[in-house]
Amino acid sequence: MELDIVSLSRLQFAMTALYHFLFVPLTIGLSILLATMETVYVMTGREVWKRMVKFWGTLFGINFVLGVATGLTMEFQFGMNWSYYSQYVGDVFGAPLAIEGLMAFFLEATFVGLFFFGWDKLSKRQHLAATWAVAMGTNLSALWILIANGWMQHPVGSEFNPQTMRMEVTSFYEVLFNPVAQAKFVHTVSAGYVTASLFIVGISAWYLLKGRHIEIARRSIAVAAAFGFASALSVVVLGDESGYEANLNQKMKLATIEAMWETEPAPASFNLIAIPDMEARDNSFAIEVPYVMGLIATRSLTKEIPGIKELVERSKDRIRQGVIAWEALQKIRAADDAGQTVDEAVRNDFVINQHNLGYAYLLMPFAKDLTKATNEEIDAAAWSAVPNIWPMFYGFRIMVACGFFFILLTGVFFFLASTGKVEGLRFKGRWLLHVAVLSIPLPWIACEMGWFVAEYGRQPWIIEGMLPTHAAVSSLSVTEVLLTLAGFVALYSTLLVIEVSLMLKYIRKGPDDGGEPEAMPARTGGMSSIAAE
After folding, report:
1. Helix segments in 100-161, DSSP class H
2. How far apart are CA 404 and CA 59, in angstroms?
């Protein structure tokens, strides 16, 4: 990667976002599971459920604090590193972020204090209401963030104003109910539910291996496995919806995910494994599964899916039309500055071609004068809109493989919990408990891969089809961004070490058993600890 301001700004935002999302899915999932457990406590009055809520709530609190700390800097970066982006889309993008702060963050931040300090000051039902308020606030926060992100993927309900050079909202309803945003929301929160469920199942499995906290461990597995199984199924189903939306609105992203160089006639096949060759612009090896891609992307067996090469040819046409819009825009602005009336033919040129204006900006790194761009420069600009195939192709498949594994693992534990056989794994089937412990990191890997595919696959656009990333950065020096990047990485790495250390400390300490006698491990050997004790 060249040390230019665009690459460094992208890297800084990617690093802070990836760090932040280490904490977000666990917060989203644990909040709902805590509310569910406390509901059982209020309904049954059994103290063991209260102890469960307090224990898992402690881990939730540690994670919540780190999530807030790492999330604040992300919004500041829009003004620091992406000032032209903020100026260009602030009227649209700023609204859901502001609502998230006012409606969601303040809600969860207020009631999280009542959750931790209100056990002896609130009635059972009042405390339960506070816990559900935390859960709702956490999920509402994700909703508004993903509405903003979904608009970047599919900018609906807005239009470009040539006088102000800004995007303006034309329909907040369309922004709110953007199909891409809605699909991303349900897919992302379901992934958070799976993350929290595997976290609880894995830690509870470790307690069973150690012969500690048996009553709490088996109940925790019962709740988390049921919730996780349903959520894992939802993730796969909702991922299918995301694939369908990508074919409608982000065809290049879908083509790169599938390493689909040529247009696939109906019914399109799914590349299970492939070896993309970027120089030859083809796959040197591929194993295809018939019909599957057609069903995912078009929900039919009669529609073809455009490949990368065809989409590049379409981009060339859109670049040429975008140049017409760009030239007309310069004339409109010049006339406005001079207080003159804009020629009607010029205005018509802009209106007809303005939906391709963003494609003209793709030419800027390749042509000094957009109106005199050569075919070679247009070709280079069009191919610059193709993300690197390798990380897209295999990042997506890592995520999908993890998703199906989560269905299998949570399904097995759900069955064992339903039949009362979980505790018996201490004596027979300990290998399954080891698998659960070792699987704890996998949901985070799947989540990070999902975000990588979603965001890297949008490149070179910061707003799909409207504003390229290279045109959105602030006027900063390479040194300034390098220093802040190094500072963020150092700070966030330190926070991550602190968070993991605190988590392990309280996991080793375990929940309050309320006088429950500890059982001895069924046998010695095997995995002795989550971390070295």
Report:
1. 106-117, 124-153
2. 27
